[in-house]
Specification:
alpha+beta; 22 strands; about 50% helix; six-stranded mixed β-barrel
């Protein structure tokens, strides 16, 4: 081995603590960077990637089985411009139940296998439905877990299906899939069957391309065979909104992780080289040239950094698996993984930072004259920090605490690096706490139901225009309960505080495409958890409040009038308020029930929301109310846990994990600084111990030496975190097409901010604990002999 190699090996082995710190700092920095980079890449067009991988359908066509034969539908796949086709698949829309609980309607498709030339389905759990009595649900639909039985009591033979798996369609072509032979039993008596055909076109990049392809397909079939179709561009637009919600959040964490990684690694490496000045002087005295000194210290830094980078890549890829899985669920995609180039770029970047920092520090040290390097040793410049030590000695504090408080002023540059590390750590925690609180506020606004008890009208349906509610061509359904009788039972029960009823109706709006859902309230619903962005809650008939997206889609503003077309009748309302509600793309209208009376005189309440009076036991109230409502066929239930929503759950999970990572990096920044300071002062520690300082006092001195940097970092980091949160949250809302009210953004309270500020001290103390314990355990003789 060459002389230079022996110097490197000796330095790495002898300075085990610094070597460990460099390795740990690099490990954490690389792990955080891999996670942030992977999430950023995953958020860049996840729908397009999954759609291409699964050969998604450019057009999902619904076809009338009474107007076209299977042979005619299959032949449409040979139409000019069609590159591939799958189908025809039998399809039907059904409303399942789980026991007595009604579930959302499902569009069910019969398919033999999940594969095919178009819309290859990815099984996420369980197995495929290969025989009658089995059903596979769309992943992320939140319908039911595996093993659940879905009942269809209103269909002939009352079929029951067991959930055997979940699958994901890139183009979201169905809510569930069954064996083809099962479709007949799910089709109501007297109903004409329907088919689904899935097409991929040679050109489908624009709406015009998809329309042209649809027209060509429709022309190849009998007139009227195509009853409906969905373009992949529509699905893509919805998916893009979900993806856009993540981008500001991930950019913020990515930048924080990058800056902290560079800061901590650079500071640790620079300090490690700086503590070796005396050894550099010895090397030069025995004949090493400045270039050899630079190479030796660069190698001493790169050896542990390379090991840390390798372990960081492993840890980052392992941690990325569950995170990317949750991200894929939120995006409605599959197959997200860490791209190899991310690992390469992160590893190269980390080692590049170590190389540059070590080169600069070693180059400066190598240029010192030999006698200067030997004289400087590890002692701070004379007089530096003396004034702080004298003032600390006058304070009514134990001597060990006073020495610790004065220590940052002896090494102001190193103390500044600690302050910066704690600052970013405190900023990250403050941002994360604010983000979680804001997301909970958005979740509360999304669920907007603060009622203690809710009552749903089971089996109720909205009847056809002019018909009785619940009446339908299949007949035989139980009569809908009388909403007035339900309301009377609620009002008569002791413990009822306030309540309101709600009913829904579908409408179209002049100037906007698609359907709009109207929720009509009987009673005052202003206390029901609706968050106003601007304006006020409606106070009279013909007034309404709407979400931000509704205003954007219709080109209106608060104060304008909007015409709603409900069951063939025009209803004009004045928009008096803007409400936060991210559901159904914001195409919602909230108004008084009296507003719809002229157009829908028979619209019954579909639910009742009750706030019990103060001191009332909710469980006992629900039990008594159910006894009163049992003859009416209605069930009351207490408030359940709020539906978290997959996107919000994923954001909270990512926030927690990335915050812990960055706080660990901040703690390593403090750890590195304290380790270097302890190594420099090891002889001083021996002197203190020889003069009678106990191990407990040594620990107190080391910990108090980081108290001021921790307090300063916390005091600066908390306002920075609040400012970052105030910048990122509106950007996230804007990406999702939402305007967020102040109550969603201004979530930090004064006590919380004070606690977060003190959290900077906690980060610093946790980072200083290991070297403090090491210093306390060092033998006095060993410490005195280091020089």
């Amino acid at each position: 081995m060459s002389a230079l190699g022996r110097v490197v090996r000796s330095g790495v082995g002898r300075r085990r603590v610094q070597t460990l710190v460099i390795g740990l700092a690099t490990l954490m920095a690389v792990t955080a960077s891999v996670l942030a980079g992977s999430l950023l890449v995953a958020s860049s067009g996840p729908f397009d990637d999954a759609f291409a991988r699964q050969r998604g359908a450019h057009l999902n066509a619904q076809l009338d089985a009474g107007r076209a034969t299977v042979a005619q539908l299959s032949a449409s796949g040979e139409t000019a411009g069609v590159s591939a086709a799958s189908g025809p698949f039998g399809t039907v829309s059904v409303a399942p139940r789980h026991g007595a609980m009604p579930l959302p309607p499902l569009t069910v498709v019969g398919r033999d296998t999940p594969g095919g030339p178009v819309d290859e389905l990815i099984l996420t759990t369980g197995s495929w439905a290969e025989r009658p009595g089995e059903i596979v649900l769309s992943a992320g639909g939140g319908q039911a877990p595996l093993g659940t039985r879905l009942d269809f009591p209103e269909l002939p033979g009352a079929p029951s299906l067991e959930v055997v798996g979940t699958a994901r369609s890139a183009g979201r072509t169905a809510d569930a899939w069954v064996a083809p032979s099962q479709i007949a039993s799910l089709t109501p008596s007297g109903k004409v069957g329907a088919y689904q055909m899935l097409y991929r076109f040679d050109a489908a990049a624009t709406t015009a391309d998809v329309r042209k392809g649809r027209a060509a397909v429709a022309a190849s079939m009998p007139v009227g065979a195509v009853t409906g179709a969905q373009s992949w561009l529509t699905v893509r637009e919805v998916a893009a909104r979900d993806t856009a919600l993540f981008v500001p959040f991930l950019v913020a964490f990515g930048v924080l992780g990058l800056v902290m990684s560079v800061l901590v690694v650079g500071n640790v490496v620079a300090g490690s080289v700086g503590t070796g000045l005396r050894r550099i002087g010895i090397l030069k005295a025995v004949g090493c040239t400045p270039s050899q000194v630079v190479r030796a210290y660069m190698a001493q830094a790169l050896v542990p950094a390379a090991a840390g980078a390798g372990l960081g890549l492993l840890a980052g890829n392992l941690l990325a698996v569950p995170l990317l899985s949750e991200t894929a669920d939120a995006y409605g995609t599959s197959g997200l993984s860490v791209a190899p180039w991310i690992d390469a770029v992160v590893a190269a970047g980390a080692l590049g930072v170590v190389t540059v920092t070590a080169w600069v520090s070693a180059w400066r040290a190598g240029r010192l004259r030999t006698v200067d390097a030997l004289a400087v040793g590890r002692v701070p410049a004379a007089g530096r920090g003396r004034w702080a030590a004298r003032r600390a000695a006058r304070l009514p504090l134990p001597r060990a605490v006073g020495l610790g408080l004065a220590r940052p002023f002896a090494r102001p540059a190193r103390a500044g690096a600690m302050v910066a590390a704690v600052l970013f750590g405190a900023m990250t925690v403050t941002f994360a706490v604010g983000l979680s609180s804001s997301l909970n506020e958005v979740l509360s606004a999304r669920n907007h139901d603060v009622a203690d008890v809710t009552v749903g009208v089971s089996g109720q349906r909205q009847g056809p225009p002019g018909g009785a509610p619940g009446a339908g061509p299949d007949g035989g359904r139980p009569p809908a309960p009388d909403p007035a009788a339900v309301a009377a039972a609620i009002e008569a029960l002791p413990g009822t505080g306030k309540y309101y009823g709600s009913a829904t109706a579908e409408a179209t709006v002049a100037g906007a495409n698609g359907s709009t859902r109207i929720t009509a309230f009987s009673g005052d619903a202003s206390w029901g958890g609706y968050r106003m962005v601007s304006g006020r809650w409606f106070e009279a008939p013909a007034e309404a409040v709407v979400p931000t997206q509704f205003l954007a889609a219709t080109g209106t503003a608060v104060g304008d009038e909007v015409t709603l077309h409900v069951r063939g009748s025009a209803v004009t309302v004045r928009v008096v308020g803007e409400v936060l509600d991210p559901r159904m793309d914001g195409m919602l209208v909230y108004t008084d029930a009296a507003t719809l009376k002229p157009a829908v005189p028979d619209l019954p309440a579909t639910g009742h929301h009750i706030a019990v009076s103060s001191g009332t036991d909710v469980g006992g109230y629900v039990k008594e109310l159910n006894s009163a409502l049992e003859p009416l066929g209605v069930t009351a239930q207490g408030r359940e846990a709020a539906d978290g929503g997959e996107v919000i759950l994923v954001l909270n999970a990512l926030t927690a994990i990335l915050t812990l990572m960055l706080v660990a990096v901040a703690g390593l920044g403090v750890l590195g600084g304290v380790v270097l300071d302890t190594v420099e002062r090891v002889r001083d520690l021996g002197v203190y111990k020889a003069l009678g300082m106990t191990p407990r006092q040594i620990v107190a001195m080391v910990l108090t030496s980081v108290a001021l940097p921790g307090l300063a970092g916390g005091a600066l980091g908390v306002p920075a975190g609040v400012a970052l949160h105030a910048m990122v949250m509106p950007a996230m809302g804007h990406s999702a097409g939402l305007r967020l009210p102040d109550s969603v953004i201004a979530v930090h309270g004064t006590p919380e901010l004070l606690a977060l500020g003190l959290g900077g001290v906690l980060i610093a103390v946790l980072g200083a604990l290991p070297p403090a314990g090491w210093a306390a355990r060092t033998r006095t003789v060993t410490a005195l002999r280091t020089e």
